[in-house]
Amino acid sequence: MKLSMVRDILGASVLAGETMLESEIKSACGSDLMSDVLAFVKEQGVLLTGLCNPQVVRTAEMMDIICVVFVRGKTPDERIIALARESGIAVMACPLTLYEACGRLYSAGLGRA
Amino acid sequence: MEPIVLRYTVDGDNFVSAGEASTDMKRSLKRLGADAELIRRAAICMYEGEINMVIHGGGGEAVVTFDGSALDILLVDHGKGIPNIEDAMREGFSTATQEVRDIGFGAGMGLPNMKRYADELILESEVGVGTTVKMRLVG
């Protein structure tokens, strides 16, 4: 699935990585606990989270995640967006809950075998 | 190859900069052409260790040595130390504050994660003196 489709499915706004929308991703994960992302995530393209701080971007970079979607209407500040740009990570934001955002992407086929 | 040594100072008072050393290490290992899986495991170990140093150790020093196949990570802090290492290694055990939990850590998974992804982990700690973590990862 292309990041542009992730944006459309979630009704998200793109805050960083506008040139990455044609990038393909194969799976996603949703978590508010970054240690869980570090412990259990493997080869994920998108991280959906309601946590809003620079450590989300750092965690994404550690795990080769190329896009972070902030859910529940969280708006990352300039510091977070600047860090994402520097790290080559796309940033989106949407008003959906983590549950619904993950559900929509899963229903659309993302991460399904 | 001649071993490459990367040295970092970790700021103990800054949650925002926590992870800078790990980011630099990961980018350096990529540039050096290290094995992708080794980089992934090293990034997790170093990042959890760095977060621990900020949360519990009041900052400290990190030294990463890479010889082309094996990677050693040495983390030294002069913080309050760990009273019971067995407890600290247990998944879910945490002494972290709410502030730390609010940034997505402090769930008692740092050391267990490091143990999970390192081939070897040695932890030495003395209350009131500090903690030293040595990790070895083989590609």
* CATH level 4 superfamily of chain A: HprK N-terminal domain-like
How far apart the termini of chain B lie comes to 14 Å
Count of separate structural domains of chain B: 1
Main beta sheet strand tally, sense and closure of chain B: 5 strands, antiparallel
Strand order of the largest sheet of chain B: 1-2-3-5-4
Look up the CATH topology of chain B: Heat Shock Protein 90
Q: How would the blueprint of this fold be written?
A:
The complex is a heterodimer of chains A (113) and B (139).
Chain A: H1 3-10, E1 13-16, E2 28-30, H2 34-40, E3 46-49, H3 54-62, E4 67-70, H4 78-87, E5 90-93, H5 98-107
Parallel strand pairs in A: 2-3, 3-4, 4-5
Antiparallel strand pairs in A: 1-5
Chain B: E1 4-11, H1 20-31, H2 36-55, E2 59-66, E3 70-77, H3 85-89, H4 98-102, H5 110-117, E4 120-126, E5 130-138
Antiparallel strand pairs in B: 1-2, 2-3, 3-5, 4-5
Helix pairs in contact in B: 1-2, 2-5
Description:
The complex is a heterodimer of chains A (113) and B (139). Chain A has 113 residues and is of the alpha/beta class. Chain A has one domain (3-107): Udp-n-acetylmuramoylalanyl-d-glutamate--2,6- Diaminopimelate Ligase, Chain: A, domain 1 (3-Layer(aba) Sandwich). Helix content of chain A is 39%, strand content 17%. Chain A contains five helices and five strands, in the order αββαβαβαβα. A five-stranded mixed sheet of chain A has the order 1-5-4-3-2, with helices on both faces. The longest helix of chain A is centred in the C-terminal third of the chain and has 10 residues, at 78-87. Chain A starts with a helix and ends in a 6-residue tail after the last helix. Chain B is of the alpha+beta class and 139 residues long. Chain B has one domain (4-138): 2-Layer Sandwich (Heat Shock Protein 90), CATH 3.30.565.10. In chain B, helix 2 runs antiparallel to helix 5 (110-117). The longest helix of chain B has 20 residues, at 36-55. Chain B is globular and about 40 Å long. The two termini of chain B are 14 Å apart. In chain B, 40% of the residues are buried. The model of chain B has no long low-confidence stretch (mean pLDDT 94). The interface between A and B is medium-sized, with 21 and 23 residues.
